[in-house]
Amino acid sequence: MKNRSILKKQTTSRNLLSACVIALTVAFTALLPQLARAGNGNVTPPPVPATIQVQAGNIAFLEGHAVGTQNYICLPCAISTTCPSGFAFALFTPDATLFKDNDKQLITHFFSPNPFENGMIRATWQDSKDTSTVWGGRAISSTDLDFVAPDAIPWLLLPEAGVQEGPTGGKTLTATTFIQRLNTSGGVAPSVGCASSTDVGTKAFVPYTADYFFYKAQ
After folding, report:
1. Which value, to the nearest 10 degrees, does the dihedral of the CA atoms of residues 187, 190, 196, 199 take?
2. Is the distance from CB of 16 to CB of 24 less than 8 angstroms?
3. In a domain, 201, yes or no
4. Reported pTM
5. Any idea what DSSP says for residue 149?
6. Are the C-beta atoms of 116 and 162 separated by less than 8 Å?
């Protein structure tokens, strides 16, 4: 009887161990595709309005979560329904840092002269590590309320208008073909403080956040 009891306990232990091994194997097998995707660095942008979709043949390869300000200055403008006073805030540069999901600094974002367009001022992204740079071309914007919050700056699609390696040959951003600005929050120009000639030159630094997606040719 004693031997049967010991044998029964050993059998039960082996069964429990086998069950645990099977459970772990199943769990790990289910996790493998996720690990593979993370290891491959795949980036999945959210749905966007049709007007700012990236054309076929391009794939997102880098994502950065931006925190910064949209910087405005009060200037004279043409009198119209959108500028009845003759003065309005105009964007003179963004000033933002893009981070990875682990809060590691990835890219800085600002306006700068594009050497590939005779110094035209363009939206600029510079890799924080290798200083490779991409300049964005003319932006296509969307304020579609199905996607964009009413109190946020528009979502954008910008084609690449020039890329440059870093001084030591860094190439992180040189493959870029398109940039999207999505999931925006804040950043809208003030509605007051720029209504007369005495306000000209007044600056406003408006906090904003956004997600930027960088695409390359497949």
Report:
1. -70
2. no
3. yes
4. 0.80
5. -
6. yes
Q: Which of 72, 46, 42 is nearest to 155 (CA)?
A: 46
Q: For residues 216 and 218, what is the distance between their CA atoms, to the nearest angstrom? A: 6
R_g of the chain computed on alpha carbons:
26
How distant, in Å, are the alpha carbons of 65, 152, 168, 169, 214 from that of 211? 5, 13, 28, 27, 10
Say what the pLDDT of residue 41 is.
Answer: 56
- Look at residue 70 and tell me if it is in a domain: yes
Number of domains in the chain: 1
Segment 96-126, tens digit of pLDDT: 999 998 899 999 999 999 999 999 999 999 9
Q: Could you report the per-residue pLDDT of 145-181, keeping only the tens digit for each?
A: 999 999 999 999 999 999 999 999 999 999 999 999 9
56 in a domain, yes or no?
A: yes
Residues near 59 by Cβ (< 8 Å), separated by ≥ 6? 215, 216, 217, 218
Domain that residue 208 falls in: 50-217
Question: DSSP labels for 57-98?
Answer: TEEEEEEEEEEEEEEEEEEE---BTTBTTSEEEEEEEEEEEE
Return all residues near 181 (Cβ < 8 A) that are at least 6 apart.
153, 154, 155, 156, 158, 210, 211, 212
Residue 27 located in a structural domain:
no
Say if residue 106 is exposed, middle or buried (CB neighbours under 10 Å; 0-12, 13-18, 19+): buried
